Amino acid sequence: MTPVLDLRHVDVDLPLGGFLTRAGLPILRDVNLSVGRGESVALVGESGSGKTTLARAVMGLQAVTAGEVHFDGTAIAGRDGFSRLRRDAAMMFQDATASLSPRLTVGYLVTEPFRIHRQPLPDPARMARDLLATVGLPPAIADRYPHELSGGQARRVGVARALALRPRLVIADEPTAGLDVSVQAEVLNLMADLRRDMGLAYLIITHNLALVRHVADRIVVLYLGRVVEEGPTAQVFAAPAHPYTASLVAAEPKPDPRKRRADLAIRGEMPSVLRRPAGCEFHTRCPLARDLCRATAPDLRPTTSGRLARCHFADHHQEQGDHHALEN
Amino acid sequence: MSFALDPPSRGRRGMGRALLGDPMGLAGLVIVAAFVAMALLAPCIAPYDPVALDVKAKFVAPSAAHWAGTDHLGRDLLSRIIWGARLALGIAITSVGIAGAIGLVLGLVAGYGPRWLDSLLVLVFDSLSSLPMIFFALAVITVLGPGTATLILVIVLVSFPAYARLIRTQTLTLAGADFILAERAMGAGAGRIIFRHLLPNVVGPLVILICMDIPVIIMLEAGLSYLNLGVKPPSPSWGNILAEGYTSLRQAPHVVIVAGIPLVLATLGFTFLGEGLRDVLDPRGAGRRWT
């Protein structure tokens, strides 16, 4: 079965704005990522690892420097390709309030996708009401302006708008950012319900590992614009194959602080994309780096447990249990 | 239930109330409304024909028959000032309307369009605004001849670059905003983004700037008319009245004084209104002051 979204060897450079040069910041490098029909994939990594850039590249907001983005089996290219992609895939932005056009009513905003794609919209008021009901908002919200909404309401309006044209894929950038824990749970449950009811596929971008555990079937870990580990969520959490993943998992707050693994903590800052480290790009912060890591860059390759990891010693760590996060 | 599908921004009423609650804005509104009423009702309220001569009654000081006195040809000054309001506001509002529309469209195109077009338009804006205004006006008037149409053309040419630049800056700031990215991600085209999403968000400051510019233009019109380069003499422009009054300043100082008063009042009125609008026009602050 063809995946809904399939990124093949995608590079993205952010232009530096030079007058004559085409040089750019190498944000993403050789990213392969696929999202199957009805699948929920989480993209995790620190700030600056390229998560948001990847989402923008998929939606065509950021030009892809090399590689291909396939949607529903066809490579996206040209105006028609993007128009189709933007009809059948929707993106939810990190800041829900700021992503709503401030001078228009919620009623207009949630029905706008119909107008943009010239889809039949016989009764806008009714459609707005229905869409708002889908996300559990009262009809009166349709008359409000974005700045009159609470964070949770704005997020729901964003979900309603994303679902307007019954997309097959929803890209959600930090869907719980800025929400109270109770509202976070509501939004996540809503997303899970909609996924079940409508057969949506999700690409969820987050650094919130609790969220990943809750909603994702599969997890893709990004470090410095490269995929460093990929696999089913439960397996990755149980036994991370890459030391970076291991440290992310170990850094997650635990109910019992004595169970945190200080030896796996990563130190320092992520290197600049302008001066990518030689060899394994993680070696500057890796607690287990050896000479080989400083000299040779590892490929993303299958581990014995059938996942993908970009580490020379992935299998070794796993056998030795070096990286096993503690039981969840 | 129904919601506004094409809402004309929110709460016009709330905004109006906020403007009325602000003493400066209220004063501006009253003065501007008085001038507009004066201009519109000029034929009804002017006690005399503004161009009718009555040489026997020249340089009459303000009196019961002539509230503002008469000028060197015995024309009633109050009537001339009332008709002058029509001319001054007519020219100012027409030219500012045209300049505002040009500035709005070019600013949006420059701010959201391709880079090369932006550079080209900025070059045009900068070239036009680098010309010294009075000399540019003199040059255009020399070529086209004085008159109301030429005056409006000059004012449009010298004022639209400032509007366009304001709109361009605002547009550039908003072009990277989340809601514009979200619109692009939904597949909205440039036309929809520019006119439905950018325009309503950039037009507020333009309205304020235009309001503050109207007195400048009234002064410019008066100035050029004073130099005999604007409205042709028999027409009762405030500038013409001043120019004519100046020659008889010693004999009859009331001419210059009464012609100066509306100029000062109009300037203050539009400036106050502009500042009042500035305080209330931000949608997020509508109805409440930030103080």
From TrEMBL, chain A:
Membrane-related topology note: Peripheral membrane protein
CDD domains noted in UniProt: ABC_NikE_OppD_transporters (cd03257)
Protein's UniProt keywords contain Transport: yes
Record-annotated ABC transporter domain positions: 7-249
Localization per record: Cell inner membrane
Major localisation: membrane
Keyword ATP-binding: yes
GO CC aspect terms: plasma membrane
Keywords: ATP-binding, Nucleotide-binding, Transport
Listed InterPro entries: AAA+_ATPase, ABC_transp_ATP-bind, ABC_transporter-like_ATP-bd, ABC_transporter-like_CS, Oligopep_ABC_C, P-loop_NTPase
GO MF annotation: an example: ATP hydrolysis activity
Database matches in PROSITE patterns: ABC_TRANSPORTER_1, ABC_TRANSPORTER_2
Domain of life: Bacteria
Record Gene3D superfamilies: P-loop containing nucleotide triphosphate hydrolases
GO terms, biological process: peptide transport; transmembrane transport
Family: Belongs to the ABC transporter superfamily.
Protein name: ABC transporter ATP-binding protein
UniProtKB/TrEMBL annotation, chain B:
Membrane topology: Multi-pass membrane protein
GO cellular component, one term: plasma membrane
Sections of the chain in a coiled coil: none
Keyword Transmembrane: yes
InterPro entries (alphabetical): BP-dependent_transpt_permease, MetI-like, MetI-like_sf, OppC_N
Location in or out of the cell: Cell membrane
Keyword Transport attributed: yes
Residues that span the membrane, as ranges: 24-48, 87-113, 133-160, 202-227, 255-274
CDD domains associated with the record: TM_PBP2
GO BP: transmembrane transport
Keywords: Cell membrane, Membrane, Transmembrane, Transmembrane helix, Transport
Domain ABC transmembrane type-1: residue ranges: 85-274
Similarity section: Belongs to the binding-protein-dependent transport system permease family.
PANTHER family, per the entry: OLIGOPEPTIDE TRANSPORT SYSTEM PERMEASE PROTEIN APPC, PEPTIDE ABC TRANSPORTER PERMEASE PROTEIN
Protein's UniProt name: ABC transporter permease
Native source organism of the sequence: Paragemmobacter straminiformis
